[in-house]
Structure formats: structure tokens, C-alpha cells
Amino acid sequence: MQSLNNQRILVIGGSSGIGLAIAAATADAGASVTIASRNQEKLTAVTTKLSGAVHIAVLDTGDNGLLERFFGNQMTWDHVVVSAAQTKVGSVRSLSLTDAKAAMESKFWGAYRVARMARINDGGSLTLISGFLSERPSATAVLQGAINAALEALARGLALELAPLRVNAVSPGMIETPIWDDVPSEKRRGMFEATAAQLPVRTIGQPEDIANAVLFLMTTTYATGSTVRVDGGGVIA
Q: For the chain, which ranges sit under pLDDT 70?
């Protein structure tokens, strides 16, 4: 198992939720972590919550020129994680084509651009965050399932193209993150309780659960082309 001590790690989308948990876990493991996000204020705020060597960078995966400049000016990384995405949810017939294209642009093409440009040391890793809807589609979130499936296929293909760089995906189920903060508290609590009751683990996932899976893929040098599902049994329930 590979140590993360003094490793250079980039977490894109690391200012909140799953990305922040990944950044915290890798910093605690002794890595030098750079958190990238579009929001400078959020980046500045989260640095006070983390211990260890933590740096910040304003980065937008939709801005090809910015990505080129950023990666062109950086030393090579040991591990890169792409957790950044903003997608509107809705059925195919209700979601506008503009919103549908924006979702694909954010989550799939953003990761694709990073994979093209990021310079990562041989034996290091690139990890993409997908989602369990790739395997258990929802009638009200068809596009999200398709995007997640595309990301997982991208990871498998990149594992061949970029070898010996290792490329993997982590597929979360429902995770309690700030993405749900816009939902009224009573409705949110009811949603979490109803979902937990249907899962074999009888609980909702936490960002730290996904961070554990990402650390496993970073430190397990025999893992590439894999999708690790962390969904509380959502696919089989």
C-alpha cells in the first residue's frame, strides 16, 4: 500500500461536501493538498478547517484556457481527484436542452478536460466521482445516470490509455452533503429517513465514506480501471 505522506494531491471541487472530506482525509494522511474550486470565498473559508499542508486554487473545469494555464504552471501531481459538478435534475421531457447540455458539460466534459491536461506521475492516480444512478437509473434523473455511466466508461478507457497512471471512479449513493441544503429541513429529513429505511445499511452516507474509498484507490497500487460503489446497498435494494 502506497503512503500519501508528502504526496502532491489536487482535489477539484474540494471546497465542500465530498471534495472537502477527501481533502481533509488526504491532508490528515500527510499529503500536500491543493483544493481547487470556482469560489474564492469558499476556498479561503475551508482552509481554516483543515490541518496540514493545504493550498488553494481558483479553477473552473469549464474554462479550457484556465485549465491549460494552471496545469502548465504546476509541477506534476501524484494524485488528482475530480469531484466538481453542477447539474440540474429532471426528467428528459421536462429538463430544457440548455440545462441538459450544461449538466453534461459540467460533470462529464469537465472531468474529460482535466484528464487531458493534468500531469500526473506514473504510478499515481486520477479518480473521478460518478454516482450509483449509472447502474440503477431513476425515471426522474435519467440524464444523471447517463452522465455517471459515461464517467465510469471514461475511467476504464483512460486506465488503458494513460497507463501506468491509474484511473478509477468512485460511485456514491445518497450522501448527506450541502447539495441538499436548499431543500426545506423537514422535507430533507423525511427524504433521508425514507431512503435509509430502504437501504440494507439503514443509514444515509456521509462524505467521509466516499473519502475512504478515494484513499483506498490512491494507495492501492493494483487498482485501476475500477469503479468502487459506496451506496449503502442502493443498487441491490
A: none
